[in-house]
Design a protein that fits this description.
The complex is a heterodimer of chains A (539) and B (288). Chain A is mainly α. Chain A is 68% helix and 1% strand. Chain B folds into two domains: 128 residues, Helix Hairpins (Orthogonal Bundle), CATH 1.10.287; 152 residues, Cupredoxins -  blue copper proteins (Immunoglobulin-like, Sandwich). The termini of chain B are far apart. The chains are: A mainly alpha (539), B alpha+beta (288). At the A-B interface, helix 4, helix 8, helix 10, helix 11 and helix 12 of A face helix 1, helix 2, helix 3 and strand 7 of B.
Chain lengths: 539, 288
């Protein structure tokens, strides 16, 4: 067994050219966690711009009152497809991609535990999204009942309906397989000495996320299967005329849907918990508290689902329970924000692009948390529910939360993946454009919602015109500036300056930074030493 | 050093650009004479019912709690960002990784704040839920796309849909400016008429898909669901007669943006006169 980092690096250098398939076989038959991770990330990037194009059309239509670009039916398809593509196509696969790349490296494992399953879970996705996106071409166009698919509305759609249901089934299978793989990898393939409480937080948050995925994706599958049989086989699960209950769908959907929002944000907590210590040059404050807070949030996510449906006519006792449970989430979430703040306190901060995006996450996600707390207050929620206030809230937690954390993670680990550094100045432009115009885009939507503008409407009363125009301008600049991201990555891969040594960032800690850059095709074929693990687990 | 300066530069330039863009957007809009008051619409209306005022005070309490927590937390973050940066010679204190006392404090204080917020909110839930002893019952039925209002036991029932002018202007490329239509998309052919100073109970349901009945000035929103009859109530202040507008708040298909709600709150005497006229007119229409 190799005892020093030097021996390890040499051993890897020799392995580097081993067993690497070439051409299309490398990708179609991929079992290497890095190749599969790359495919997930590329796929997610394509979906990010696809969903982004839908968003641009939405903002263009809402630029001024009156209908100028699309009719009301197409508008509803755009909002529905934007939600589905961004959630299931962009955010979730990006997290699985980062998990594939980083978890084996961070726990000292040679690969994911189930490589062929890994291949399957990725390759289901392109087919699922070809099916979903091709629904634009069928009579009646793409699904237009909202990504939440509430019956009876969603049952009114024709040819696109079964396509939507089967696409969701495929995405669900992909997610479950991916989650099982992550659990098995973390439970079985940790290097000797990598105890649970020495794992990096990205691994911890992904472990908890995987349990959420395995628990709730089958619930979603059940819900959409019931929709399917209601539509085609004469059942009445959600049909009031047949003795069914349309509200039951909402209960089942949000039992999936609320944990789902934590599925999208918990790995982001993990990434930010790696980046802030690295650029504060200080270990993470309160590591164990962070782990327990993540677990508490995951637990609470199962008992707050009805806060998405306060206006459906719940009894007073249910309103009180779901309000109290929802407000409780602020406690572990607050602990996390305080811990990140304390990590920066008396640190030695620098502001490279990963840190900038992590800081934007910290500030803007916290604002999303504030509006979330306000939304938890039932009487006030009766005003906020289904307005642009909600739209602003969930974009603050999903875009400046999940998406910024993904971008931060890519900027943090990219030098490790490709062994080259990207153009820092361009990346800072990407940051400032994103951070400023994100707020121009979404902050005014708080005003619109409070002033009375419902969400999911293609046209609006003229008193909402001013802030909609500002929001659209913000949207166009925000959307266009995201094109910098793939360009920066492309430029880095082609011609970035080579990174010397193992550490791309002087404050970075963890097993990934014990490997040479770029990380060898087969890493940790010899487990890391105790000294390496101890260096990474300074907390 | 070189990197740090480069990093600030796009930030400053972009902030200036964003301000200029905002000013550029604001100026022509302010010069526009059309009455819309868009820029000033930033907050919930206080409204004209006891519920809406209660909701408003809960909303503002939650808002200020968030502002003050934000000032504190963001203040500490900004302090660190300014004073604990390496370019200022800050050296990391790597021993600062755990402090049980501080962690207990920042877990306990939020719990206390939340309890303080939950009490008025729970009171509000009870207030809004108390629909007993209503003086007038109106059955509200949502459909694709409009509302049917039935004054229970009064022999009055009618359908309320988007007005013709808004309808014409709202077509794709209609060529009609929305600004030329009074209350564009917020006007109906047949408004709901209610008396002020009277507890009105709504029995809300739907015939096809889910809709949601919402008038911000009343502080209530209730989903209209096939197979369900949800109840809600409001009592417009006796001194606040007027026309109050809202719209459907739950996605209900392509006409979702086109099913406004208009409530004409009138004095009790006017209401009785209107009710008599309306009942007679409907009887005449039914027998003819």
């Amino acid at each position: 067994m190799a005892e020093t980092p030097h021996t390890e690096a040499h051993a890897h250098a020799e392995h580097d050219h081993d067993h690497k398939p070439h051409g299309w076989r490398r990708w179609v038959f991929a079992t290497n966690h890095k190749d599969i991770g790359t495919m997930y990330l590329v796929f997610s990037c394509i979906m990010f711009f696809t969903g982004g194009a839908f968003a641009m059309m939405i903002r263009a239509e809402l630029f001024k009152p009156g209908l100028q670009i699309v009719d009301a039916g197409v508008f509803n398809s755009l909002t529905t497809m934007h939600g589905l593509v961004m959630i299931f196509g962009a955010i979730m696969p990006a997290w699985v991609g980062l998990a594939n790349w980083m978890i084996p490296i961070q726990i000292g494992a040679p690969d994911m535990a189930l490589p062929r399953l890994n291949n399957l879970s990725f390759w289901i996705l392109p087919f699922a999204f070809v099916l979903l996106l091709s629904s634009w071409l069928v009579p009646g166009s793409a699904p237009a009942g909202g990504w939440t698919m509430y019956p009876p509305l969603t049952l009114q759609f024709g040819a696109s309906f079964p396509m939507l249901i089967f696409a969701i089934h495929m995405m669900g299978i992909s997610s479950i397989l991916g989650a099982i793989n992550v659990i098995v990898t973390i439970m079985n393939l940790r290097a000797p000495g990598m105890t649970l409480l020495r794992m990096p937080l990205f691994v911890w948050t992904w472990l908890i996320t995987s349990f959420l995925l395995v628990a709730v994706m089958p619930v979603l599958a059940g819900a959409v299967t019931m929709l399917l049989t209601d539509h085609f086989f004469g059942t009445s699960f959600f049909n009031a005329a047949g003795g069914g209950d349309p509200v039951m769908f909402q209960h089942i959907f949000w039992f999936f849907g609320h944990p789902e929002v934590y599925i999208m944000i918990l790995p982001g907590f993990g990434v930010v918990s790696e980046i802030i210590p690295a650029f504060s040059r200080k270990p993470l404050f309160g590591y164990e508290a962070m782990v327990y807070a993540t677990a508490s949030i995951a637990f609470l996510s199962f008992i707050v689902w009805a806060h998405h449906m306060f206006t459906v006519g719940l009894p007073t006792s249910a309103l009180l329970f779901f309000m109290f449970a929802t407000m409780l989430i602020a406690v572990p979430t607050g602990v996390k924000v305080f811990n990140w703040t304390a990590t920066m306190w008396r640190g030695s901060l620098t502001f490279e692009p990963p840190m900038l995006f992590a800081l934007a996450f910290l500030f803007l996600f916290t604002i999303g948390g504030f509006s979330g707390l306000m939304l938890a207050m039932v009487p006030a929620d009766f005003q906020y529910q289904d307005t642009y206030f909600v739209v602003a809230h969930f974009h603050y937690v999903l875009v400046s939360g999940s998406a910024f954390a993904i971008i931060a993670g890519v900027y943090y680990w990219l030098p490790k993946w490709v062994g080259r550094m990207y153009d820092m100045t361009l990346a800072k432009w990407h940051f400032w454009l994103s951070a400023i115009f994100f707020n121009v885009l979404f902050f005014p939507q708080h005003f619109l919602g409070l002033a009375g503008m419902p969400r999911r409407i293609p046209d609006y009363a003229v008193q909402f015109a001013d802030w909609n125009m500002v929001s659209s301008i913000g949207g166009f600049v925000f959307g266009l500036s995201q094109l910098l991201f793939p360009y920066i990555i492309w430029k880095c891969v082609r011609s970035g300056q080579r990174v010397e040594g193992t550490r791309a960032w002087d404050g970075a800690r963890g097993l990934e930074w014990e490997l040479p850059s770029p990380a060898p095709y087969h890493s940790w074929t010899i487990p890391p030493t105790e000294a390496m693990i101890a260096r990474g687990a300074e907390h | 050093m070189y990197r740090a300066r480069l990093g600030i530069r796009p930030g400053i330039w972009l902030s200036i650009a964003a301000l200029l863009a905002a000013a550029g957007a604001a100026l022509p809009a302010m010069a526009d004479e059309s009455p819309r008051g868009g820029w000033g619409l930033l907050n919930l209306p206080v409204g004209v019912t006891s519920i809406s005022r209660d909701v408003y005070s809960i909303h503002m309490m939650a808002f200020w709690v968030c502002v003050w927590i934000g000032v504190l937390v963001f203040g500490v973050m900004i302090w660190s960002i300014i004073f604990h940066r390496r370019s200022r010679g800050a050296v990391a204190d790597v021993t600062l990784v755990h402090n049980t006392k501080v962690e207990i404090v920042w877990t306990t204080i939020p719990v206390l704040i939340l309890v303080g917020m939950a009490i008025p909110a729970a009171h509000g839930i009870v207030l809004i839920g108390d629909d007993a002893h209503s003086q007038l019952d109106i059955k509200v039925t949502g459909f694709q796309w409009g509302w049917q209002y039935e004054y229970v036991g009064k022999g009055v029932s009618f359908i309320s849909k988007l007005d013709a002018k808004s309808m014409a202007a709202s077509e794709l490329d209609s060529g009609i400016s929305p600004y030329s239509v009074p209350h564009y998309l917020r006007n109906v052919d047949h408004p709901l008429v209610v008396p002020v100073g009277t507890k009105v109970r709504l029995l809300v349901t739907a015939v096809d898909v889910i809709h949601s009945w919402w008038v911000p000035d009343f502080g209530i929103k209730k989903d209209a669901i096939p197979g369900y009859i949800n109840t809600s109530w409001f009592e417009v202040d006796a001194n606040k007669p007027g026309v109050y507008r809202g719209q459907c708040a739950e996605l209900c298909g392509r006409g979702h943006g086109y099913m406004p709600i208009v409530v004409d709150a009138v004095s009790k005497a006017d209401f009785q006169a209107w009710l008599k006229r309306e009942a007679a007119a409907e009887k005449a229409a039914a027998s003819s």
